[in-house]
Each structure stands twice: as C-alpha cells, then as structure tokens.
Give the backbone structure.
Amino acid sequence: MRTPSPTVLVVGAAGRVAGLVVPELVRRKARVRALVRDAASAEKARKAGASEIAIGDLRNHQSLEQAVKGVDCVFHIGPAFAPDEAAMGVAMVEAAARADVRKFVFSSVIQPTNTRLENHASKVPVEAALYSTNMEYTILHPANFMQNIAAAWPSSSMAFSPSRFQRRRNLPVSTTAMWLKWRRSH
C-alpha cells in the first residue's frame, strides 16, 4: 500500500542539489523533513518548502536515528569531498534500515568505481550498504549538475539561465563542452 502523503527526509535540504529536491517533493504532495546542520540552513529549507526540520550531523548516529524516525523515504546526497563521506553515507543507510524506512534514494556519482577519484570511490560503500538492506532503493548516477558549474559560467549573453535553455529548440549536447569552448576563447 502506498502512503498518500509520504514523509521524506531530505539530507542537506538547504544545499545546491537537495535544495532543488525539496520544492519538487512538496509539489508532489510529500511532506518534507529537512536534515540540516544549523538554524540558518533550517530557515533556508523551510523557505524551500520543508514542513519539518531535523537539525543533526551525519557523523552523529543519535541525530540520524532521530531524523529517520517515522519517515517513509530518505533522499541522501553526501557532502562531496568530505574525507569520511563514505562512513557518513553508510551510517545514514543503517539508521534508515533500523527505522524500517521503506525507500532510500541515493544521489551517487557517475562511475563510482573509478577509484582514481576519491569522491567517486567514496560512493561505493554506500551503494554496497544499500544492496544489503531490505529497503527499496534508487541509486542516481548523475553525470554533471548545472548548478555546480553555474558560478563559473560567463556573465555574458551565454550566461546560465534554465529558462533560456528550456526555450531553445536545439539544446547543447554537452554543456561542459560549451563551457570549455567559451573558456578557451576568453
């Protein structure tokens, strides 16, 4: 049986990526519990639509246990480049499994087995932890996030604008390639 209005814990709900997930979940009638580190981030998550706030730390197992209590789903994206990102992700998976969370969505990275890139390899233990649970799970392997390159995008007429790209008929095959081409010419 599906929960008509599931409660979804969004890890890092005030961040660049998870902060975009919050309003979309609210639009789809989910109740969002934001897991954030402090009051300033809590306010940002509330403005995005979170109806509940859990202030905690991915390194603190007690705060994770509290955060997952009563939720139906977890959306987890780890803090990129943190030296203990894998341990934090595994702890979140384990806390969710102990709390009988039904679904876990993990935003991983493209090619997590590329061990030459530590931030990619750190996703493998989290994925392995998910495989060993009874939860339904979805593992996302995004190639690139526009909001991660938006700061470096030129402030000229080629500036990043989601609505501008949505209106174009011929979308660029590779935004990264466009950006690199622009960088070489300036």
Remarks:
- The radius of gyration is 18 Å.
- The chain is about 40% helix and 15% strand.
